[in-house]
Amino acid sequence: MGEQQAIELLSQNVSTLDNPGIKYIAATRLGACSSRDSLDALVVAATGDRDNIFDSITHRKSIEALGHRRDLSTLPTIYDAMHSSDEQTIVNSVDTLINFGIPLDAQFKSSLLKLIQDGSDVLKRVAIQCFTRLEMNDCDGIIHEQQNNPNLLVNGASIAYSTRVEGDKSKLHLLANQLKDSNVIYRRSSVIDIGDAGDPSLLSNVSEAAVSMPLRAKSAFKMTAKVKSKSQRVLLNQMLQDDSRNLHFTQNFDALSLVEEVCEFLKHRDEERQYFGAKSLFGWRPSSVIDAVNSIWENHGSDYGVHYQVNCLISQLGLKELSFITKESLLEPAPQYAKSKIAATWGCLNLGLLECRSDIENLLMTSTWEPLRWTCAEVLRKL
């Protein structure tokens, strides 16, 4: 979609569009542009609440796009959005402030503190995250009070704030404990909160948590300095290679003996089940594993979770007979398979695919995703 087409779509009435959803796709497209016309179109689309569901989503996406543009002239629009009647619009507006990455004035801070005092738990959490990530002080102690909030999502965010902004590490262990919660929501939120807290002492805990590798990697890179120690490099590489045998499982599952059972686990939305499905294959006979992985790929490889775990297994089990999958995944352009590129890059090293070196070099030069760039650099040093 071209920039001018996106601008025109953004101003059209949804009732005139064959596919109303294309309107919010246009808003996202303009977030990657740089012209004044595209910025003005986003500001108009981000102003005022909307009744129509597609206009409402476009409104939210326009605010999100302003966060990518990071133009200070749009701050009044974002401030207005913080007072919307739509919760998701408020969340997007606060996330946009975080993306701007600059300390906020008293007016913005006052609005954020009001959200922490009176808003829903969702709004409390995102507003606290804003204070934490922009390293702004709450002189009134309102965030500190949220450490008594029974909602672990709010409680965890407030602990992260105290650790990073106030230097109080006394409750950091509570975040580490949540990594072992059987509820995947709390495991994920704890990984995020530990990343926000920025204390590298919990890097090992994060690396072993049974949640998605990209989420762990994002926090791991946030909580470590640009120049890593030797032990940190070892932990990062272990985490990025993502061997399910190195993870801490919070639940006990029955052994899986059928391919169909493994597939059900690999396709589950709780990553712990995905990892258990992968881990179970390490106990199968080598000949059975090759057939099973190939069958899983052929029948369920379009699922991005399965796609990723198959690439991890080929790398970790040294299944050179299936190296064609590694090569395909290394060049896969679809964004939903991005984490598979990391598994495939390690696969090139573990399978000795020297012919893929130029592809890995290209990924290193063109990718902006730090975990993938790190992986490419590490593999190229050893390949």
Describe this entry's structure for a reader.
The protein is mainly α and 383 residues long. Among the domains are: 1-81, no CATH class; 259-382. 65% of the residues lie in helices and 0% in strands. The protein is built from 23 helices and no strands. It has helices at residues 3-11, 22-30, 36-45, 53-69, 75-81, 87-100, 106-118, 121-133, 142-145, 152-164, 172-178, 184-197, 203-207, 213-222, 230-241, 259-266, 271-280, 286-300, 304-317, 323-330, 338-350, 357-366, 370-382.
Rg, Å, rounded: 23 Å
Parts with pLDDT < 50 across at least 5 consecutive residues: none
Number of strands: 0
Q: DSSP helix count?
A: 23
On the 0 to 100 scale, the average pLDDT is 96
List keywords for this structure.
383 residues, mainly alpha, 23 helices
Give a quick precis of the structure.
This protein is an all-alpha fold and 383 residues long.
What is the topological layout?
Elements: H1 3-11, H2 22-30, H3 36-45, H4 53-69, H5 75-81, H6 87-100, H7 106-118, H8 121-133, H9 142-145, H10 152-164, H11 172-178, H12 184-197, H13 203-207, H14 213-222, H15 230-241, H16 259-266, H17 271-280, H18 286-300, H19 304-317, H20 323-330, H21 338-350, H22 357-366, H23 370-382
Helix pairs in contact: 1-2, 1-3, 2-4, 3-4, 4-6, 5-6, 6-8, 7-8, 8-10, 10-12, 11-12, 12-14, 16-17, 18-19, 19-21, 20-21, 21-23, 22-23
